[in-house]
Amino acid sequence: MNSNGFGFSFGNNDDDDSDHNDRNDNNRNNDPFGFFGGNFGFGGPGGAGGMGGGGLGDILNQFGQMLSGMGDSMNSPEGAGSVNYDLAARIARQQIGRVAPIKQSDKDAVEESVRLAELWLDSATQLPTSGYRVESWNAENWLDNTLPIWKRLVTPVAEQMNKAQLENLPEEAKEMMGPLSQLMNSMSSMNFGVQLGNALGDLAKQTLTGSDFGLPISPAGVTAILPANLHEASKGLEVAPQEMLVYISAREAARQRLFKHVPWLVERLVSSVEEYAAGLEIDTSHIQEAMGNFQMDNPDPERLQDMINEMQGMDLSPRIGSRNANAVSRLETLLALVEGWVDVVVTQALGERIPSTKAMNEAWRRRRATGGSAEQAFSKVVGIELGAPKVSEAAELWRRVENAVGVERRDAVWNHPDFLPTAEDIDKPAEFIDGLLGESEGEEFDPIAEITALEKLLAEEAEKKDEPDDKEDKKDEE
Predict the structure, then answer these.
(1) What secondary structure, in 3-state letters, does 382-448 show?
(2) Which residues on neighbouring strands pair with residue 103, listed in sequence order?
């Protein structure tokens, strides 16, 4: 059973699964982020993700795993693209294993906890309740309901990864690949599917809510809690289970308020991933150098074995980057601002009502610092390496903003993406807060109205510029 530093373990204690869990623990080599499973992408220290070594032995093991799960997936519609999602879903379900039906008592407890959390949140934020229906999920429900958004996040990265791989091949290799290109595409699709399935299967057993870590991956209109996962998670924490449920419900309800009433937020998070993917670049020079030393025309079996042994110890992971590095920075900042705002709002709503709020905040920070965080989910599932979002710093910024200009003005910052703090503001919030204080001196100042007026003025100026051309066209027609 792995502990992720949240103050409790995340493992499944079912007796039937104990042997399976022990094997998983051994395979993870005590990786503190091991509960996220295999990475999506290429793995290795230099790649997007961090699966460990990218040596020849690892690659052959992955190849064997792909073949064992092939079945009909190569011919399925879901297996025709850059990622074999049919294979990914089947592997994820194998990872999840048997799930018990959700008890009615757990469903009732979740609904009551969300209702109570929403009531208390009203005193801490101007953003109204989402009004979403409350659902209790198990790990399979989480997989089924979040997979559509994961597809949107993963697909552009996988497509660009494949494209970049082909662009980096020598011309001779491209010519040789011609007849085998369809097979190679299928194998690449399966490779991504296997790794995505492993990552999602592990994550499904650890996640506590529909939009855990601040990622908007649950369907619109749903506030979802996973009571079985939460029950396992709360065993090692000296907090009453009901208090823990209300705390987690409050965090999820607060996120859903943001995602509903800040209509541009979800799309901006997703588009940042798509922008990053569009600029993907792969450096394979170190791989080409290694392959150049691997001379297949050498008939000496001993020399051939020596070369194979040398390659097994090498990191054969492509080094991945993006021309659009700003998209990653924007994503990190947005995630920090979302979770930082949630920290502040939930603490205000629950702090005086639930004495253990402080302890749960600390446990949540430990979880975030030791693997239960957005950057690890993105790394393992999507294949994007993020820096750790500065959630604590963002929370401090939101607290200082509230102290300076009040709750209403604090929440109004979410009205437009141009109003949000930047990464620099999170590090040094004084100038940002001074700007808000300057705005508050004019009581009738409406930033949205100002932007609307500016856009209208620009449109009118553009029309005026077009008018002479229109008149000339009319003269020509006469």
Answers:
(1) HCCCCCCCCHHHHHHHHHHHHHHHHHHHHHHHHHCHHHCCCHHHHHCCHHHHHHHHHHHCCCCCCHH
(2) none
Token pair listed for 36: 């996220």
Residue 316: its H or E element:
none
In angstroms, rounded to a whole number, what is the distance separating the alpha carbons of residues 250 and 119? 10
β-pair partners for 135: 224
Question: Residue 234's beta-bridge partner residues?
Answer: none
How many whole angstroms separate alpha carbon 144 and alpha carbon 140? 6
Bridge partners of residue 224, in order along the sequence: 135
Q: Which has the closest alpha carbon to 416: 466, 460, 455?
A: 455
147 band by pLDDT with thresholds 50, 70 and 90: very high
- Read off the pTM: 0.73
Q: What are residue 158's phi and psi, to 5 degrees?
A: -65, -40
Separation CA 77–CA 151 (nearest Å): 14
Sequence-distant (6+) residues with CB within 8 A of 19 are none
The first and second tokens of residue 289, run together, are 């150098």
Percent of the chain scoring above 70 in pLDDT: 69
Instruction: Check if the beta carbon of residue 323 is closer than 8 Å to that of residue 275.
Output: no
Task: Give the CA dihedral 235, 239, 245, 250, nearest 10 degrees.
Answer: -140
Burial of 29 (0-12, 13-18, 19+ CB in 10 A): exposed
Q: Which residues contact 401 (CB under 8 A, 6 or more apart)?
A: 409, 410, 413, 429, 432, 433, 436
Q: Tell me how far apart the alpha carbons of residues 89 and 197 are, in angstroms, rounded to a whole number.
A: 6
CA pair distance 401, 271, nearest whole angstrom: 28
Both tokens assigned to 44: 């290795």
What's the longest Cα–Cα distance across the chain? 90
Instruction: Give the helix ranges, DSSP H, for 28-99.
Output: 56-68, 85-96
* Of the candidates 54, 226, 41, the residue with the CA atom closest to the CA atom of residue 146: 226
Tokens of 58: 């690892």
Q: Say which DSSP state 235 is in.
A: G
pLDDT digits (tens, 9 = 90+) for 20-37: 444 444 443 333 222 222
Residue 40 parent element (H or E): none
d(CA 400, CA 231): 35
- Classify burial at 40, counting beta carbons within 10 Å of its beta carbon; exposed 0-12, middle 13-18, buried 19 or more: buried
Closest CA to 271 of 153, 421, 145: 153
Q: How many CB atoms lie under 10 A from the CB of residue 362?
A: 12
